[in-house]
Fold these 4 entries.
Entry 1:
Amino acid sequence: MYSFVITTSKGLDDLLAQEIAGICPHLSLKTKPGQVIFDGELEDAYRLCLWSRLANRVLLQLAEGEVKDAEALYSLASSVNWTSHFSVEQRFVVDFIGTSKAINNSQFGALKVKDAVVDQFMELFEKRPDVSKELPDIRIQCRLWRDRVGIFIDLSGQSLHQRHYRAKAGEAPVKEHIAAAMLIRSGWAANKDKPLADPMCGAGTIAIEAALMASNQAPGLKRPNWGFSRWKKHQPSLWQQLVETAKAAIKTPEAPIFANDIDAKMVNIARHNADAAGVADLIEFNQGDACDWQLNCAPGYLVSNPPYGERLGELTALLPLFSRFGEHLKRHFANWHLSLLTSNRDLLKQLKLMAGKEYQLMNGALACQLVNFILDEKNCEIRDSAPAGQDFANRLNKNLARLKGWLKQQDTDCYRLYDADLPEYNLALDRYGDYVVVQEYAPPKDIPEAKAKKRLMDALSVMPQVLNVVHDKIVLKVRQQQKGKGQYERMAQRGEFIQVRENGARFYVNLWDYLDTGLFLDHRITRQMVQRSSKGLDVLNLFSYTGSVSVHAAIGGARSVTTVDMSRTYLEWAKRNFTLNGLSNLYQYRFIQADCLEWLREHQQKYDLIFIDPPSFSNSKRMENTWDVQRDHIALLSDANRCLKPGGKIIFSNNLRSFKLDDAGIADLGLKVENISAKTLPEDFKRNPKIHHCFVLTHE
């Protein structure tokens, strides 16, 4: 009699226990999160290796005990007679799971057990077995929980979910044992005489697992290697007898199985995987849009792992897809059962279906829910009720009507459409040519995350129609206070730019890779002011970002324009903006990569106009000290004042809402001040008068 631990994904332990009870009904089982424990014979372990569709590993316990320190772990591992399990010529590996105060590093734990194993062999044979992570003959697993460690032989070798038929997979594949769990939880596994269909099959895992179930094929039959194959206590004749019995149990399925995907490449991958599993002739594959796909058969079960929209930008495409899919199901799949796996429950609400049971599942590291629906008469009713998000749509239409006359007078195709006008829709919408950038402000702490997420879904669902923009040109971002490195980190890696126009200038903007796009729309009037004021002047643009102010100064006829920023990326972007506008005189236009504060402190050249738009706060590692605009603005303006020609001007701006100009400090510098914040506030930003502060400081 041996002690065994059978592992699975968290949330499946009860289901695994039910499965084990069906395979080995004589066993007395105990469950823990992600585990089923029992005492049994080797034949029981073999049966589970061969037949379990839900297990990850079958572990045979060799030792178990309390471990208060590293030496206790070594002693526990040394208590096992390792030579009875494998020889000195064989290779082994130790997997260690869990940490404690005593063993606070799993690699250290594995090393300590490995030392105990090789030391035992050295004592007996003066020779040590090799360690091999890639192709071990024996896999030892240690599991630490609190201060207790269990030491096991892993009879499965590799995880049992690896059925060895899936050579290729898509971007977000569902693991084989999760697919099996979905089929069981959907109800189909108990009704295999009904058709099974996956409308978004990807690599085909769900359909293949269904075909294996329907034909009563043991999932371990195709597996070439096992953790027990070279184990000294392996009983080959017993194992072979079980394999032959499993082969003889294969039967013909009672009902058809269908698999469909919109991507022809994925359909080919699914066919290849099904062929490797030996069930290709049991599945009917189709390539097409799930929202158009129909079946001519009796009602059965639809089970699928549709896209979740884990990346924000994917939601804009998925919302209309799920809405269309819901209508299609109601029209063409009446009386079918539907089971969908998702990590975004709000996406499924777009189906407009009343859910039945829900089950928690872990798909890899992602917490998901399997949601069951019955497409009965009530669920298939087509409702013409007002869409969710109608209040948001009404406000958008109102804003468009208000801005219509103003936009006709503007020479720009980039502007703000909406800025948290309705508290429950805490978003900002900016138009950039054919694109719309949606910035979701992080919700206040008193607003539940689920409610805020639903509002976002509702808003995204109505935007394409109201704004007449296709869903793949809606770019979604989350805007919240950035701290530390987060101020500068990229959000994506697309490297894609589009061109926009503004008052005779053209600019490259990147709508995807950073929180900001490369053009601050609230400074449109300020840039015009610089353009009108720059003719014949020497202009300095500090904290230049992508050089939009510099471009307007150059277009306005500045004698020279000096552009300074700490970021090489932004300076290269600024140069591209100059080239886009036909501004290529290298002697007239200078680009300097430097810490603006240090550079200005040591600079001696004089300028007629200096534009300064610093961040509110910065702690960049390339700066000697931190920067705080409220605390440090007088020192900055003092250095800028020293670089002004007599009668010269500083345009100083920042977007710290609570900012207060130090009037006494400015007076000490001998600068005359004009607050032009209101004058530089464009019509499309008037809902937010504190979007920036802007001052003209004149050197008297």
Entry 2:
Amino acid sequence: MFSYDTPYLSGRTPVFARNAVATSHPLAAQAGLRMLAAGGNAVDAAIAAAACMTIVEPCSNGLGSDAFCILWDGSQLHGLNASGCAPAAWTREYFVGKYGADAKTPPKRGWDSVTVPGAVSAWVALSQRFGKLPFADVLAPAIEIAERGYAVPVVVQSKWAAAAALPEITQQPGFAAAFLPHGRAPRVGERFAFPEAARTLRLIAQTQGEAFYRGEVAAALAAHARAHGGAMTEADLAGYRPEWVTPIGQDYRGGGGGYRLHEIPPNGQGIAALIALGILNHFDLASLKVDSVASQHLQIEAMKLAFADVYRFVAEPRAMRLTPAQMLDAAYLAERAKLIDPKRAQHFGPGHAPKGGTIYLTAADERGMMVSFIQSNYMGFGSGVVVPGYGVSLQNRGHGFTLDATRENVVGPGKRPFHTIIPGFLTRDGRPQMSFGVMGGDMQPQGHLQTVVRMLDYGQNPQAACDAPRWRVFGGQVHLEPGFDAATAEGLRALGHDVGTFTDSYQDFGAGQFIWRLGDPAVDGYVCASDPRRDGLVAGF
């Protein structure tokens, strides 16, 4: 169904294999491939790659990350929510008392931005339920890399150096000792080793994660929090469990029909991609040219409508006034679609539905198992906090809460915050079609939307869909990636879009990994893509 033309500038071509791992760092992809070659399955490969990523791309994730996963086990989809919960002491009053009545959210950095980290629990849960190889064997490549070190690659170094210029990160306890060897960020090609993280990985491997949540590492985390004014306790860590969930989905008519995009349900923002696709079902995108003003305008407006609802209503499910089913109600999305004017850009508020720094990787094997996995420290190096002696760099997901008591996403003890990281999965007629994701803050559902539309409506192969210049709706503006067609950009301005320049030193236009099933995996295999915006690789055999 795909065209294998290369319409966009890229140094990459699609990769075809019966077993494949796609990540944003080659060493992690190769670690996953080692598991497949050793008789493991796609879950073993994904865990091995994820553990390696905490070492080789520390500017995006670490041992203190959160994670989500969607996987096809050979017969059905499963979802795993391993996002962390707020410490028991976290109330609105806790933050107002420390930071004043004018505070809108928990802080961006430091211990008061850290929820219980969930990524390690995801590795353990996935291994215990679906893995084939011993857990210690799966973590062995990451331990080796952490101990021996690796040469820092180009994109990772640029993001590392950008973080090293921010005192709000570098002055956090433990950061400089861990990530500023020689008093600075490593240079491209310079060796970086992380023996303290290797120590923790060994403890995790030996205890099936128990040391991290209910043992030596947990005690170190809690002690470090106490020493630096944080509220997290050993009880907060000991009480944490990841949650198996049923993915939510939205049908899409592209490519002859039968396709369904699946996302993890809230507290994540994946529902934004589903809402936008549901709105676009009411337009004939395929009749418009792929990079035309008309096509891009409709996608941008659908995304703006989706975000208007998501930012207002999405929180931890038990706190939401609306259910995901209500937000995806077909009649409601049809009414939202009517708000789009093909001739002008608009600003949209939330509707009235019926009452009621990140890394992404994917792996697939010739037996048909496919894994879509994402883990993140959120804003670059996250909280900036690193626990000495253990190499645990911690996310800052607590900053995703609000202190507005009228909102569903208001902070509360044991509560999960609104989350940006989302793995994606596409099925066709109930069968697995593609495991994929696009990392990068609020770019993630926008990347899901743009790449899925390119593949299903326009027949672009996964690498071409990944390579294409992207737009990003952000803060009332539409930012266009360098290389975006100048005439299309002018056309969007003429429709009233506020076209701006995106300048964040860490966030950009996302980076994806894609594995598309061609037929019988043991015979036909997969076609795979890795984003040229990162240092990544598809490894396969």
Entry 3:
Amino acid sequence: MAVRKLWARGARRGMGGLGAGVLAVGFVVGGGVSPAAANWQPDSSRLCATEPAPPSGDVGTPSTPAPITSGSDVWSFVSEPDLHPMRVTVTARQPGTAPGHIFVGPYSLGQVVGQTGALTVDNSGDPVWFRPLPSTALQNADVKVQTYRNSHTGKTQPVLTWWQGSIAIPPTYTNLPGGAPEPGGCYYIYDTNYRLVKTVSARNGFNADEHEFLLTSRGTALFLASKPVPMDLRPYGGSKDGAVLDSQVQEVDLATGKLVFSWDMLEHVNLADSEVSAADTSSSGGVWDPYHVNSIDEGAGDQLLISARNMWAIYDVARSTGAINWQLGGRKNDFTFGPDADFYWQHDARFLPGNRISMFDDGCCNQPGGAPEQQSHGLIIGLDFSNHSATAVRTYYHAPPLYSASQGNTQRLANGNRFIGWGQSSYYSEYAAAGNAENNGLRSLRYDAKMPGSNISYRAFRNEWVGIPYYPPSVAVRAEGGHHVVYASWNGSTETRAWQVLAGPDADSLSVVVGHASRSGFETAVATNSPGPYFQVRALDVTGKVLRSSKVVKIDGIDGIDIDIDGGIDID
């Protein structure tokens, strides 16, 4: 029986070189994966944003708090002791949800519960895949499934994408307006085996912005980028030696890295139209954020839909000329609003069929600009271009009512449902297409979940995803009450349905199946009376086929300790 050597700790988690513990060498028997695939490692030269931006607060200012990594709100695993994702509480689960897993990037404006990173969970709230980051001053945002097109071959494949970097959150970062990306951020693209495909960075001195990253059918990436531009702000109530946080739409060819398109807010939108005054920039390094662009979408032809939160406006832009075709909301609004159609501080504007626009209307929270206070909600607006009118077609409110000062999204699902990420409120929800009305948030509700503590996610998505990790399953064995308990997990596998446990007197004699159990959450515990002392687990698919085998571990007879057969020790 062939025995192969591979990295068994950092690589198996698919963390792209981030957040890994000390590497330990183990052995895997069988599994049907080529040595090249088993030993695949991301090219470290392609990694980016692996360290947080340097703090900019005053000397002596407390740094970003350490995460809470134990307790009832945090997951801990015997087979993956370095993973501590947050525990999500599912508050409503009704028939009629769309298929797919849920994707979030948990972090906090205070102390985060669990590690920050990219997280996939199922409808029960159990983790499916987690990629932790090494510092709470690093965040992942806009974690979602997209389609990547290889422009050389023309082939397409599903991928996971996200932004990674540091967000300007006081008191650690006071050099930029709150929510702006610190320098050094970038975008990641991962394949279905959790291999790094590509990283993407902004061009021309701009910083990659966490608010949007879209892959196109042209083999390009559309994203937002920002940078401070020095400016005399006295005409807008600010200081002479101030700066404007400019926002730019950039498009990069993924094959060549060439910038193929850009569109600049400062060149096309009047600063005087902002709903945020330039008078108070003392907590943002003198930088004014008049625009705060937070989404891009592509429409038919050469249309781009651009949302600017601090303008209370959504712009339809012609790519070919850069001209603004029309504006919805804000001080140069081209439409008359019907009842419940007005919005403030909005996020995530998307084209829908039939001259409709969806968005997340934050609508609050006693912020500058004098907007009336209203509940945050998902909103679909119908546009009548003949009469220049805007009508509320559907609304999606939460029960209890939520007031999100920032962030959020409204996702259209394949079955017509809407998935709502509540931004600065710690919830995500799914509703039937019909929606509901203010103070009637339970109507049409199909699913609701709450993140622990003050945890939030910039956006939340439900996407269909098939993950088959390039790294092997994880295994740990504990002696408990006169028998052995084998703990099995495979971070990111969506296809594992059951586990087999093999045991034997030596590493080459693991032919006896001593345990079998259906997968039960991220980690499955299987009790066995076998003395071992060598153990291994196999992940099985829905047909009972072996997907992959773990490394081999040896129990040494001491409670709580198992030993990799190369001599490395894992202690709980």
Entry 4:
Amino acid sequence: MCSEVTRPSAKVVFCWHMHQPDYRDRLTGEYYFPWTYLHALKDYTDMLAHLEAHPGARAVVNFAPILLEQLDDYLLQLDQYLDRGEAIRDPMLAALTKDALPAPGTEAFQTLAENCLRAHRDRMVERFAPYRALVQLFEQTLEAPQGLNYLNEQFLIDMLVWYHLAWLGEHQRRSGSHIKALQKKAGGFTMEDRRTLLSVIADQIRLIKPGYRKLQEQGRIELAMSPYAHPILPLLIDLGSAREAMPNVALPQASQYPGGEARAHWHLQHGLSVFEEYFGCRPKGCWASEGALSDATLALLSEESFLWSATGDSVLHNSIKHKANAGLAPKHLHRAYQFEGSDLYTFFRDDGLSDLIGFQYADWHAEDAVGDLINHLVNIANQSNDSENCVISIIMDGENAWEYYPENAWHFLEALYRRISDHPRLEMTTYEAALSERKLEPVSLKHMVAGSWVYGTFSTWIGDRDKNRAWDMLCEAKAVYDQSIETLDEEEREAAALQLAQCEGSDWFWWFGDYNPSESVRDFDYLYRRHLINLYTLLKQPAPEYLKSAFSHGGGSPAAGGVMRKGHAEGAA
């Protein structure tokens, strides 16, 4: 009897992208929204705990440098409060420290209570009976004239505590004795209870830097980065690059972003500086913001000595069909590619597999979901005619998907790492390890059609009326920046450059447009205009009158509230 030939395993790379825009007002230090520290508590810590618990697991963890700055700032604020009683500059965290909260019946009371509703209703509110009861009581009072007058300060304190308890990661919920005690107490929380909660929050944020750094040093993860403030690099370099995948797209009135290539360089170089200071190492890979790539962006990444980058599979499909690549015989999706003019390795996200995790598996039993994913992975491995060079890329947001899963995807992620790291046909690895341990043979193409992981285009950030208006606002501000920057001293120039970076981030443009929810569009419209006004202030120039009025209003109801998108447009192949 002939023995069965053992087929080589296929490499599987999970790349988790951690990103929040800068919610700070750089002039006051105040945070407008709490999402950075809340995702730190719920997601960055849980993702770390899962990786620590599975020594055989491997993953790429990509951080936006502007997020790392905010994590350090939050930890500093918490320590200064706990040590010396100094004020915290995030309103939601600060509310936990106040001796007196807004009086019942006031607008401030209602606003603070409504902010405590901003959690996934099924997975984060309904899960905890005391929190659910508080929310239901609040909603009932809103239906009655002057109903809020019947609530008291203790109600608001308990809402605040439960809001933060619900946002805690599952690892801390299961192992932290203080959190177990607070959940058991259920209500009537005291100032001592609130201080205990704040101490836990500080300790959780404190774990992030050394935890990920240690796993990187052990070779169990690869740490990668995005450009500093998460701008869409191809659009900074050339607004017209949007036409490569969307020939008929309507572009802003401004023909180009002034000095965009220099700003793209700045975001990479400053991002590297922040990343190296935080983690103590230089990253080999760059998930360019939103996987937004073009030939010019690839060349820029090569100049900065990055080894690899990645984007969505629609970009590959568009590139293969381009006339510049006619006659070439590209291999399948799950390969490393190189494009003419760049020695950078480019990988392509398997949008189908990534979107299964992002949009479908949340309602499955964890073992069934992981089993289904493994079946897909093994099928790809079996169909590959070159297993040595087969790299399956699952790239997705490492934070927003999990609140749609039971218990913050604790069971799903545990099963994912356990079963795939032990599978005989699958090898969990990182891009750096795959490229260094076994030299991959790249597929060569002449031209990349510029695009992102979302639909293979830049339609999420440009082309819509409101998005184009935002670009024109930014281009006008950048022209003023260029005219004014030399009149400032060195410290003032640095502050203005950082403020400009905030305005250049991708998140504002993501949210503008009628298809997004009104509440989110309102928040990001306000914050974008606030950042631009601050830029004019730092440049010592008057801000345009139009920045006083909202220009985007939303009104849609997209899947997952708009925080996540599928890689392919509905109905696309």
